[in-house]
Amino acid sequence: MKILKREFKRRIDVHASVVWWNYWDIEHFTTVHKAYTNVKMLFENENMYIVALTWRLPIFSFFKSSGICTTIKTGKYKLEDYQSTFFNIAVKTEIEIEEIGEMSSLIISRYQFFLHGWRRILAPFMYKMMAVWNQKVWDEDLPLKIRRQRVKEFGFKDFKGLPDKLEDRESIKKWEQSLPVPRPKNSPINEYL
Ligand SMILES: [Fe+2]
Description:
Elements: E1 2-12, H1 16-24, H2 28-32, E2 36-44, E3 48-56, E4 64-75, E5 78-85, E6 89-101, E7 104-115, H3 123-153, H4 166-171
Antiparallel strand pairs: 1-7, 2-3, 3-4, 4-5, 5-6, 6-7
The structure holds fe (ii) ion (FE2).
Residues 22, 28, 33, 137, 141 line the site of fe (ii) ion.
C-alpha cells in the first residue's frame, strides 16, 4: 500500500470566516465548480455533513466518480473530509485556515490517497492531477470569496441582506460563520433529506 500525499498553500486577502463559509456552502458546488455534477445532502449538523456526490476529473473529464463524502469540523477553521473516489481509492483531505492578519488568510490543503495493489501505478498521474484540481477549484472559488468579503464589510447577513441604513453598513461587521450554512428549503441539495 502506498500513501500519496500532496500539500498546497495559498494566501488570500479575506477574513478566515469568509474562506470557512466557502468550504461549508454546499450550494455553490454544482453551480460554480465545473467538476461537481450532483450533490445531495444526507446529513448535517453544526460539526459535520455527509453528501452524495458526483464529480468529474479535471483531466479526462469523461471519468465520473460517485460516492459519499463526509466532512468534519476539527477546529475553529479546520476540517477533514473523507471519501472514496474512482477505483475505490480512499481519499482524506485536510483543510486548515490560518488567520495571518485581520483580513488575510493562509489556506493549507493536504490530500492523502490510499493506493492499494495495482492502484499504486496511478500515483504519478494523481500527483499531477491534484495540482490541476487544486488550481481549478481555487480559480472558480476566488470571485465568490472576494464578493462575500465585500458585502460582509457592509454588514451583509444571509437571507437578510444589507442593513437598511447606509450608516449601519459602515459599522456592523460580524465575522463569525455558524454551521450549517443556511440555504433555502427548496434547494435541490435537500432532495434526499
Ligand atoms: Fe468551492
